[in-house]
Each structure stands twice: as C-alpha cells, then as structure tokens.
Amino acid sequence: MTITSEEQIMDAIAMKRALRRMSHEILDRNNGPDKLALVGLQTRGIFLAKRMAGMIGTVENTTIPVGILDVTMYRDDFRMVMKQPTVKVTSIPFEVKGITIVLVDDVFYTGRTVRSALDAIMDFGRPGRVELAVLIDRGHRELPLFADYIGKQVKTQADEEVQVRMVEGDGVDEVTLVKLSR
Predict the structure, then answer these.
(1) Which pLDDT does position 3 carry in this prediction?
(2) Is the dihedral of CA 97, 102, 107, 109 positive or negative?
(3) What is the mean pLDDT for each group of 10 consecutive residues in the chain (182 residues)?
(4) Which of 15, 37, 126, 146 has the fewest other C-beta atoms within 10 Å?
(5) What DSSP string runs through the chain?
C-alpha cells in the first residue's frame, strides 16, 4: 500500500487540549484520584497515559500510578498476522485488585486490541472497574465495546489510516489521516 494523501487532524496544541480535557473527565467521573491508575497500551498509549497521569497529578497534587501493557500474546490474530510476534514490556507496578484502571490507547478501531487488553489486565487481578480512554476513535467496531473518554472522533473509510505521532517516539506531536491505495 502507498500513501496517496495525508491530512493533519490534530496538532500539538489540539492533542494537549484533548488530553487535558480527558484527564479532567477521568477525575470528575471517579470523584478524584483515589484508587485510580492509568495503564498505557504499547506503544503510544504509554506516552499518553504518562502525560495524563502528570496532568491529573498536577491538578490533585498527587502521583497517579501508571502501568504498561503489551497485549501481543492476547490478540486473537497474532499467529495469523505475525510469524514472529515481537513481545514488548508489560509492567503493572501496583495492586490491581479493587481499583479503577483506565486503559489508555492512541487509536480505537475494531476493538480487538481493547478486548486483548481486558484479558491481559485480568491476569494481574480483578479491578473494581475498567474504563477506556482513547485519543482518537475512528469507528468501525467489530466488537461491542466503547470508549469512556475520547479525545476526538474521526470518521474514516476502509482505505484510510489514522497515524498518531508523539514527541517521545516520533519527534513531533500530531495526528494525521492517511489515504492509502493498493
């Protein structure tokens, strides 16, 4: 596939604004930061979770625990898509039992990654509640899942892809909508 066009749909300022709003929504819905932890999905979900935890921590003058979750081995398609799957770091440095876990990811699409994340997080204990925060919701769900916190909803076509770039890994903060051709 080749890229035929690319349109910026969020710049650094819009991303920061969306993360700040979602952070406040998480605080409001959970009545503060008590018994709350964010878990970022590899890779960009980790960067987003750390930024949001920092924003929440600044507002509430506290430290919000942040975990890292790799769902590669929990995916229902990993053997079909990848001959040699690359397993990345998973680190949940806090007790999961009874707390609210906010899973954080960059793009919410079919729902399969989120389903995998739910399976994975249960291996660490039984949270009191699991919520989902995504920077971009592009629709096209294949599973009956929804996000609790959404930075931006973007209507996409099957031949389009949403690309999230972040300073931590890509040197720039932006979200683009890429048109692909075969």
Answers:
(1) 78
(2) positive
(3) 88 98 98 97 96 98 97 70 66 97 97 95 96 97 96 94 96 96 76
(4) 126
(5) -EEEEEEEEE-HHHHHHHHHHHHHHHHHHTTSSTTEEEEEETTHHHHHHHHHHHHHHHHHTS---EEEE--GGG-TTHHHH-SS------B--S--TTSEEEEEEEEE-SSHHHHHHHHHHHTT---SEEEEEEEEE----SSS---SEEEEE----TTEEEEEE-HHHHSS-EEEEEEEE-
35-53 burial by CB neighbour count: b if 16+ within 10 A, else e? ebbbbbbbbbbbbbbbbbb
Q: Is the pTM of this model over 0.85?
A: yes
Sequence-distant (6+) residues with CB within 8 A of 157 are none
**What is the domain partition of the chain in residue ranges?**
12-155
Amino acid of residue 150: I
